[in-house]
Amino acid sequence: MYGELARDLYEGSDFHNLGYWSPGTGSLKQACENMIEKIVTFLPEKNGTILDVGCGKGATTRHLLRYYPKEAILAINISTKQLDTCRRNAPGCAFLAMDATRVAFPDESIDNAICVEASSDFNTREKYLYEAYRVLKPGGRLAFSDILVDWWLEKRSPVRQGANFVGSLPDYRSLFRRVGFRQVEVHDATDSVFVPYVRHYTRFLGRRLDSGELDRKGYNTAMACLGLTLFWMRYYVIGWVLKS
């Protein structure tokens, strides 16, 4: 997330997601902004507190300042290095070092929450969802984007050993209902997220190679990693759930 390639790919914006590529989107930075805008639309009542779970380097949190006063925004991450960057990106917001599966907030203390492209890395996604359900107030929403991966990749995790694997979109929806959420809206956004991201990233790498900013070895390594991602990613989903 701090390498030169990532900085240039995201135009120094400190975003780090695949973006939502609506018609006319011209850059990954814009696509990332589109993603946050899309997720924020799932929160019709932008009142009270908002919790940004797995806030990365704070670009998502910074974007929330368009809708919430800084004192209403809470954000958590397990990386203290990223949290230092967050505090520069969104000064005045509350950034806390915290595991999303062990959230140190009281029951029913948060009005709404978002989680952008992070829960597939939590140990585990289900534990995190129980925590999200616990801290949300009745009537609160969790809006999110998430990645569902192939079994072989999830099985390789040394800490989860397949615990985050979800076999289908109906199974994914059932997970939220098992936790306690009653209204569940999940949409397959793969064609609006991953497909155009791959196209954009491939062109980006090609330009870097042609300009000499990336040597052939670096180009081949990056393309190999992209090919591996194509192999293991099954769905990119966006949606929201309601705590009744």
Task: Write a short abstract of this structure.
With 244 residues, the protein is an alpha/beta fold.
What does this structure look like?
- This protein is of the alpha/beta class and 244 residues long.
- Helices cover 41% and strands 20% of the residues.
- A 7-stranded mixed beta sheet has the order 3-2-1-4-5-7-6, sandwiched between helices.
- Strand 2, helix 4 and strand 3 form a beta-alpha-beta unit.
- The chain is globular and about 55 Å long.
- The termini are far apart.
Count up the helices: 9
Number of strands: 7
Poorly predicted runs: none
Instruction: Encode the helix/strand succession as letters.
Output: HHEHEHEEHEHHEHHE
Distance between the termini: 37 Å
Query: Could you estimate the helical fraction of the residues in percent?
Result: 40-55%
Beta strand %: 15-25%
Rg from Cα: 18 Å
The helix-and-strand class reads alpha/beta
Largest sheet: 7 strands, mixed
Major sheet: order of its strands?
3-2-1-4-5-7-6
Task: Choose one word for the global shape.
Answer: globular
Mean pLDDT: 96
Q: What topology emerges from the helices and strands here?
A:
Elements: H1 4-9, H2 28-40, E1 50-53, H3 59-64, E2 73-77, H4 80-89, E3 94-97, E4 110-116, H5 125-135, E5 136-149, H6 151-155, H7 169-179, E6 183-188, H8 190-211, H9 216-232, E7 233-242
Parallel strand pairs: 1-2, 1-4, 2-3, 4-5
Antiparallel strand pairs: 5-7, 6-7
Helix pairs in contact: 8-9
